[in-house]
Amino acid sequence: MTALFNRVPCVIAAIATTAFSAFAQDAERKPSLAQVPNFVEEAAAAGLDHTYDGPWEYFVGGGVAIFDCNGDRRPDLFAAGGKGRASLFQNNGATGGALSFEKRETGLSERQDSKVLGAYPLDFDNDGIMDLAVLRLGENMLLKGLGECRFESANRALGFDGGREWTTAFSAIWEQDAQFPSLAFGNYVDRSAPGAPWGACHDNYLFRPQGGNSLDYSNAERLSPGYCSLSILFTDWNRSGEHALRVSNDRHYYRGGEEQLWAVPPGRPARLYRRSDGWRHLKIWGMGIASIDLNVDGYPEFALTSMGDTKLQMLDDEADETVPVYRDIAFDKGLTAHRPYTGADLRPSTGWHSEFQDVNNDTLWDLFIAKGNVEAMPDFAAYDPDNLLLGQWDGKFAEVGDHAGIALDRRGRGAGLADFNMDGLLDLVVINRSAPVSLFRNVGAGTSETPRPLGNWLSVEVRQRGKPNRMAVGAKVSVKIGNKTIVRDVQVGAGHASGQAGFLHFGLGVSERAQVRIRWPDGDWSHGYRVFANTHVLIDRGAENAGLWLPE
């Protein structure tokens, strides 16, 4: 149990190299010129009563899946419970009103929904009903959605061996011409290995569906070496149309390890990128990945949370675009988030879930980071509030977590931003360790009694009806407003043990119209769809016009 408390000497040594410049950066905290949204905590009032807890195996994890489990298009929640049971909450809130959730029975046994560290939603069997990949201490579960927020284990039916590992990360992608998704599971410490936990990391696994029209996950490909991963993501990092697997690892336990990138060529074994491929050595306490194309050049940037400073990696524009040579631009962007931004605690921060969204609808991407001490590590901040870094018009970011109302004294882990009351403002749920879940309603420029909108917005859902990959995972959604284009990918993975599916949210600022184009997973582009602001848009592949969904 004491293993996770012994990080201090090596952590301090690593942080020392960046401490001077990082501390200088926050000597004078710059105010945000972007409008700060107001968040109001409503978990108790909303009926969201849940706690993630347990012994040292549950110091990590604590994820939440955000998805529609009953077909009403509103985002529901599946929250990991650690040593206790996971909980499913159905969204019953009124449009534009206070948040409201009702706890639902899932149809799972106590053995099946206990020891859960995280979960990711996807439709792995293409039946139009959302399923779940559930990460556990022990056997992982593929849960088939039955509708009406009910599930059943599909492990045996799919030939899926959930293993006995300590699983902390997940991602999925439909490979070229595949009927069903390939699933990657990232694993943490091998507790049974001699000398554990030091130098004892499980390998990760890639499950590719076997050929034919029936789903079969009986063949597992070992991704070795594993270096105690806490976040993974399939990403088309070089615009090749072929997704690679990015892996963020916890340096505290591995020996000779680093961050990883695996090439995953269709029909061939995965291959690790090495120095000869341009991959640069990077060792961090990798806990969460967030990906977005900040400068709309087609190449995604990656925010990597850690203990101490967050990294923001961009492809080096002086290197060949076909090789994965990255440089860190976090300091230049004001995005290091290396220590608490409020309060008297100046010790280093501990970052977990990270996610790019537009929380104030000004067309600029913002970054949320869940923060919290691992347990009671004396050389790391005890009061370590979550970050909300607003994008600024000069391309940098400014911290506003305290002004926005999210700077609680809790130890955050997994999280997600979603529009729970369908009012065009992204709300926030945070799973905390050994404390109740936090649920923040975004009331814009107003209060809980009188919410006021910020900028205009657009919610987009893309679908491939009658085809494999109905959710269009791997698609790119491009929204053009005036001379500006905003893009984001449909993906399954990243974050910290937390994923979501459903509408993609875009802030439009003062624009009242937008043009939407989709690059479908096979590389084909749609024509442009002209849509109005402040709407929920449904785009089916091949459809002449975009559909419209009006929440009741």
From TrEMBL:
Keywords: Signal
InterPro entries reported in the protein's UniProt record: Crtac1, FG-GAP, Integrin_alpha_N, UnbV_ASPIC
A UniProt-annotated Pfam family: FG-GAP_3
Every ASPIC/UnbV domain range: 472-531
Signal peptide start-end: 1-24
Alphabetical list of Gene3D superfamilies matching this protein: Integrin alpha, N-terminal
Keyword presence, Glycoprotein: no
PANTHER family (alphabetical): CARTILAGE ACIDIC PROTEIN 1 (PTHR16026)
Protein name as catalogued: CRTAC1 family protein
Annotated source species: Roseibium polysiphoniae
